[in-house]
Amino acid sequence: MNIMIVFLILHYGEHSVTEACIKSIQGLGLSVPHEVLIVDNDPVPGTWDYPHVVKTGNVGFSEANNKGYAYAKNELKASMVIACNNDLLFDAAGFPEDVLTTYVDGDDYVVGPDIEKVGTGEHQSPIDTDLRTPSQVKKTIFLNKLVLAFYPITYPFMRKYFNGRTQVGVEDRGSTPLADIVPCGACILFTKKFVEREDKLFEPETKFYYEEYILAKRCRDKGYKIVFEPKLHVMHVDAAATNSAYNSESARIKRKMRNTVESSKVYLKMFDGKE
Q: 3-class SS at 37?
């Protein structure tokens, strides 16, 4: 079996964060062929001392990852693509090669590893065990629009809400793989079966948010198997990239809510009127 594993790192913000991620991948000591691909999605692209860099210029999560994926698939001939945020850290004990390689050419299409938040120990994947329903999404759109309409008044309450909120995955993860889950977008493995059949990782594209549910819905419609694998474990310095790029917390929260509304609409259209 020919293997080429490509670590697709979505860069945004501080170079030191991305460099730490790359160093941790190099520390895995993988014996199978693999490459690191940097997708530079910063508004001001940087200079990199690495052979494989795709500069996208702040086009959003989905489009940036898709452009990197096209390079990984067509230029690097990837048999597995590991799409990850730049604020992730890998280690050999938590990301064993023998477990990783079993998924390259297996029956699954998408694999979500266990993602642990640095500092709190919270586990962020999978984010759900089922798709969000159209009625749930419509409620999300309505509430976000309502808050945005009165944002000068609602901001103090939303600030308190977001500052007290943590992203925690489902509690009953267990110690064995779980099927038909919604993986956390901070790190997703796309196997050979997916790479052979698909030209994009995330479709339809959104700028930010709901990418995981859109992916899960698309896979379910096509009969692609998604699995959560607790034997693959990574650490997440959550939001180290995006938070560093915003001086105003008010602007960051408003941006998050606006993008949530737009991405929710994209996800809702996938149901085509079906609950």
A: strand
- pTM equals 0.91
β-bridge pairing 80-85 and 5-11 = parallel
User: Which residues are CB-neighbours of 270 under 8 A, at least 6 positions away?
Assistant: 204, 214, 217, 218, 221
Residue 159 backbone class (left: φ over 0; alpha: ψ -120 to 50; beta: rest): alpha
φ and ψ at residue 14, rounded to 5 degrees:
-75, 130
Of the candidates 213, 183, 219, 182, the one whose C-alpha atom is nearest the C-alpha of residue 200 is: 219
The residue type of 203 is E
**Segment 157-200, tens digit of pLDDT:** 898 887 766 655 666 666 789 999 999 999 999 999 999 999 99
Q: What is the pLDDT averaged over residues 106-127? A: 93
- C-alpha distances out from residue 100 to 5, 159, 216, 270, Å: 10, 39, 21, 31
Which residues, including other chains, have CB under 8 Å from residue 48's CB and lie 6 or more apart? 38, 40
Residues facing residue 249 across a β-bridge: none
Write down how long the chain is. 275
Architecture of the structural domain at 5-130+168-240: Alpha-Beta Complex (3.90)
On the CB side of 201, CA atoms within 13 Å amount to 30
For helices 249-269 and 151-163, the axis angle rounded to 10 degrees is: 90
